[in-house]
Amino acid sequence: MKxxxxxxxxxxxxxxxxxxxxxxxARGEFRDPELAAARITITEVRITxxxxxxxxxxxxxGRADGAALLPALAHVQPFLRAQVANAMRLKFAPRLHFxxxxxxxxxxxxxxxxxxxxxxRDLG
Length: 124
Fold this sequence. Notes:
Blueprint: H1 8-27, H2 33-37, E1 40-47, E2 53-60, H3 70-87, E3 95-100, H4 103-114, H5 117-123
Parallel strand pairs: 2-3
Antiparallel strand pairs: 1-2
């Protein structure tokens, strides 16, 4: 997804970080039992123009309590940052700030509204 004001380099680096993190979460090799058992998907990464900080949007598959994982993610952030640094060729490894992606919940809400009897009656 192209964001206004993002350079091609920012978009490329952000997508690379997303792939690295997604692979780490797919393997689930964390000492923290809460993270090892959680099914997490990385939905988007946005990086600052200087490539020193990245906002990582994630969703917890099958559950709506993604915010409960924020403390555990903050705890493993140095490990994840080191893994990103090892996988990519950047001068500085960006700081990772995790945020719950609510777009999936919003899409489900809109879908439920579109399939409600009141909307179906108005469309028919």
